[in-house]
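User: Small ask, check this?
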Amino acid sequence: MGVLAQRSDVLPLSFHVDYWDDQGWHDRFSSSDATRRQRGYASKLHHNSVYTPQAIIDGQADLVGSGTSAILSELAKPHQGVATYIALDAQYLDVSVAAQAGGKRSDVLLIGYLREATSHIGRGENSGRTLQEFNIVRSITRLGSWNGSTCSFHIASASLPRDATHAAVLLQAQGQGAILGAASVPLAARD
């Protein structure tokens, strides 16, 4: 994840699931929203169960998250998308999605994320280890829908969690389908 987070052509996001929290160590970044999202992908991709580490590329390809060569191979494939923008203007985020003929009805999602963190593991199977973590999703908010016409949103950056250092917008086909567009922006330091 750290290597992918350095690439300008990829927006990798870490969704920390909460179903490991009863295994001896509570992940301070775990979220039931992340677990619901992963279970949604399992259903969409016709899997009987969920697993970690898992990588979902553009909402369509399912790969083992530790399979670096397979992930890089998938990322090398050509990807077309819808022009999607996010900008920080004072204390507001301006999000816009361009028009595209024949656009699939899609959800516009605002993601607040923490760029980097270090976690010291005190218990469980990774006891004593230190994890360097990247692009940790702290919030997922549906802003509205896109149906092929230009749309825009104006959101207070203060609505994101205090530990979010960046914001991203994802344009995802409804029903947790393909990611059609994505963009991110660093947030100004907040008191």
Summary: Residues 32-44 form the longest helix (13 residues).
